[in-house]
Each structure stands twice: as structure tokens, then as C-alpha cells.
Amino acid sequence: MSKLLTRLNPVIGVILLILVWWIATLLQIADPVLLPPPQKAFKALVDGLVSGPLLHDFAQTIYRTVLSFLIASAIAIPLGVMLGAADKVYRSVEFVIDFFRSTPASAVFPLFLVLFGVGDKTKIAVAAFGSVLVILFNVAYGVMNARKTRVLAAKVMGANRLQVLKDVYFWESLPQTFIGMRNGISLALVIIVVAEMFIGSSDGIGYRLIEAQMLFEMPTMYAAIFAAGALGYGMNWIFLTIEKTFVHWGGK
Amino acid sequence: MLSRTRAAIRLIKGGPVQDDPVPAALAQPGEKSYRWFPPGTHITVRGLSKQFQGSVLYEDFDLDLPRGKVVSVFGPNGCGKSTIINMIAGLLPMDKGEVLFDGKTIDETRIGYVFQNYREALFPWLRAIDNIHYPLKLMGLSRKARNERVEKLLGRFQVKIDFNRYPYELSGGQQQTVSIMRSLVMEPEVLFLDEPFSALDYEMTLFMRDQMQKVFMETHTTMVIVSHDLEEAVYLADHVLLLTRRPTRIADFIEVPLPRPRSADTLSDPTFVEIKSRCLEIFRREARLS
Ligand SMILES: Nc1ncnc2c1ncn2[C@@H]1O[C@H](COP(=O)(O)OP(=O)(O)OP(=O)(O)O)[C@@H](O)[C@H]1O
Ligand SMILES: [Mg+2]
Fold first, then answer.
1. Model pTM?
2. Does B125 contact chain A (CB < 8 Å)?
3. Nearest-angstrom CA–CA distance, B161 and B153
4. I want to staple B63 with a disulfide (CB 3.0 to 4.6 A). Which of A234, B45, B123, B231 is the partner?
5. For residue B206, which of B235, B226, B228 has the smallest C-alpha distance?
6. pLDDT in tens, B58-111
7. Looking at this predicted complex, what is its ipTM?
8. CA–CA distance from A191 to each of A89, A195, A245 (Å)?
9. Assigned CATH for A36-246
10. Which residues surround ligand 2, an ion (CB under 5 A)?
11. Domain assignments of chain A as residue spans, ordered by start
């Protein structure tokens, strides 16, 4: 019995939330147009995925997010390893990185619109920009906190600088790199969804949300919110799973 | 080839090469500008100086370490035991001075180094066996050649370790064994060990001492081992290098002429006891001198 309860534990919150929502609509606490009953939102989600445009939107948002994340990682990981290994160089660019990392990525939208025009390029570029800085910062710190003993061990065994970078610093920073990648992809998702709302789009979860709002299709809007939430949660979960198998030595 | 000739000249001379017009070959031991070294020397340290934040640790320090012998380094806490072997092994820059191995520079010499903290010296992302393969990979050996070398080494050690495990899955003694094997697999000309057994329990320490002795008797690799345990220092060594408090000088260089293999019985051998108490006396004198 208690075992079953522990198993069900995480689900209880979900059930509770739906229950409260359902009761709220039954009691008509909020305007039924603004807060449709959960089964309606759920139906909109299923319909949208099966026969409507939501599946396509979902796929588009994933595509943009993942692409910007991949671009960001390809730039940030090698650069972060190199910067972190030469900590004097890092110290001299630290302020710039910190500054732009603290700048809301949305603030660069106008600039990137001028550079890349209205379209997918701008969305992906801004998301990649935000995510590069997050990943870079984490990788560089991971490298700078590398155990000096391991670096010395590699050097005394005859490793040259490049070998020390790829055989020691890269691995040493991997736990921190994963933290950076997880934060980086979350940020990329946030930026992509916002961009889809306001920057000339014809698809994507963000676009669907804004369109549902304008057409006052509240169930569709709730459905799109859930889709976005599921996406964020799912990506985080995938990363945690990869991390667990890949960084098996973490914390040991 | 050229650099080797230059190295040989530097070995014999005390000062920089260009300064002296006399060809090195003509130099005589005992001559003023030259510092001779005893035959059978492997490592020569000349004019080494090191300061930390303006306080002198070593000043114009000379040292000759014999070839194919085990030298223990013993001295008061913080006298610079780790610092000196790190500088000789090229892990730490010196302010001044030079170190040559048989006339070769550090870059021309294969060095093995065993760290006290094996947890932070092994690569936890590699299996134990791949940790041992790693230096051979750096040497650019083929997979086949690597396997041969590793097999040979495993045969020599004969320890019951599952080498397919990751370091953090092994006990401390097993990890340090892997770490020692990793440093031996490249067949180093000189092996440095900085308090290699101090993080192990007593039983494991005894076992590891005998492993080291076995390895030494088979390979006759020149070894320099820092120990904070006088009994261990004397037990393992052919010579004990006793250091003073800082600024650090050589207090004494004591020979340990006991035959190998040494065993638990050696610890009660009159010669052993006598040498140990002589070392202790010097150590006490030096420690008090502060
Ligand atoms: N990076 C450093 N910066 C400043 N001082 C240092 C540094 N490394 C060592 N020292 C100082 O130099 C002295 C020698 O240090 P070292 O670690 O070589 O001593 P040791 O003989 O190995 O000591 P122990 O017995 O504790 O291992 C110590 O007094 C230490 O405080
Ligand atoms: Mg020390």
C-alpha cells in the first residue's frame, strides 16, 4: 500500500491541480470563456496534435530550439575549454561574457532583425547567442576548476597542450558543461517561443499561442501552453538522463 | 643530436655555455668554474633557487642522485620535499638553476610520477585499464604494442584488481596500484613518488612497499620517493636524503647498505636500527635548529 503511494506520489500533484481546475470551472469562479474546463483544453490538445496544426508547431519549435542549441554548443564548448585553460585570457574577456550573459537576450532582437531580417535566421541567431554565453561561462568555469593534479599527471606523461585540452580539461569540465547545456537549451526554448510570438512567424508553439489569443480560442491556448511546458520538461529530462550515463563519475 | 652534445657540455660546466671559452672536454674536476659530479650519477641539480612570495626555500642548491638506486627524501614539515621533486620532475618551474638527467634535459627524459592523491591523479572517465594505456597512447604506440606492454606489466604485478572497473569503484590501495602501474608502463628512466602510501591504511602500505621493492629489483629504475615515515624511508631506500628546515639544504645523504629483498625481519636488523636512529638524530638536530 505504502509502496503504491510512493509510486503515485508525483502524480498526486497533477491530479490535485486538475481537480482544483475542474472544480473552479464547475463553480464558475472564473469566466468560462477565459478558463475552460480541463477536458476541453485536453481535447484541444489531442485534436491539435492529431488533426490540427499543433504537431507541426511542436516540431517547428523543437527544430528551431535544437538547431540554435547545437550551433551554440559547437561554438561554446571548444571556445570555453580553450578560454578556461588559459585563465589569463579568460580573465580579460570575463567582463564581456558576464555583461552579455546578464543582458536580456530579447534586447538584441532589434539588432539581429537588422542583421538577419525577419525570419527563422533571426530567431535561431538570438537563441544561439543567449545560449552560447550560458554554455561558454559554465564550460570555462568547469575547466578552471579542473583538478590541477590531473593536468600535471597528463603533462608529466608527455601530453602536449592540445592533448591536455582534449584528454583532461574537456572531461574535467563535462559535469559543469552539462549544467551549462541544460540551462542553455532552456534559454533557447524561451527565446524561440517569444520570437515565434512576435517576429514574423507562421508556425511554432509561440505563434500558435498568440494566434489562439487573438482568435480568443482559449482551449487551444491552454493546449499550446501545455505543449510548451512538456517540451521544456522533456528536454531537461533527456539531458539529465544523458548526463547520468555519460558523466558517470560525477561527484565521485 | 646537437642538443644532446650541448646538454653534455652543460652537465659538466657550472655556468652558462657561452660564457666560458674552455671546451668542456678539457674541464677538470675541482677546477674553480666547474662542479664535478660523482660517477654513477643520474640526476644532477645545479644552482637551483626557489622562492615563494619573496621567502627563500632553496638557494643555490646542488644535488647528485645516483643511477639505478632508490633515494628517500626525508625532512621537517614544509621544508620543501614536494617542491624539490616537483621541480626536478618538471612540474614546477624553478627560479634559477638546472637539472639534467644523464646530461639530458627534462624534455628528453621519460619521467614517471606517482601523486600522493591518487583520487585526483587518475582519470575517472577512463577504466583502470585505459588509464594504464593512456601514457602509451601519448607515446603513439599501436594498439598491439600497447597491449603487449600492459600484459607484461600486469604479469609482473600480479594483483587481483578488476581492471575493467572505473577508478572510483576501486579501493584506495587498488587505485594507487593502478596509478603506479600507469607511471611504470612507459618504462620511465626516473620514477618520482610523493608520499605515495600516506593515504593508505597500514596493511595496504606494507603490501605496497613490497610491491615497489619488487618492481625496483626487476627494473632497477632510478627512484626518488618522498616519505614522512622514517622507517619507510630507510626500508625502501639505498640512500636517505635528509633535508634541513628552510632555507633548505642537504643535512646528510646516508647510505643504506642492506641487501634486498628486505622484509619484516629487516626492520629489526641491527644495521637498519642503527641507520634509522642516525637519521632520526640528524632530523632532530635539524628540526631543533629552527
Ligand atoms: N604555491 C605555493 N605558494 C606559496 N608557498 C608555497 C607554495 N607551495 C609550497 N609553498 C611553501 O613552500 C614550503 C615547502 O612546501 P612543500 O610542499 O614542498 O613542503 P613539503 O616538505 O613537501 O611539506 P609536507 O611535509 O607538508 O609535504 C612550505 O612552507 C609551503 O608553505
Ligand atoms: Mg609534500
1. 0.81
2. yes
3. 13
4. B45
5. B235
6. 999 999 999 999 999 999 998 999 999 999 999 999 999 999 998 899 999 999
7. 0.82
8. 30, 6, 29
9. 1.10.3720.10
10. B 82
11. 1-35, 36-246
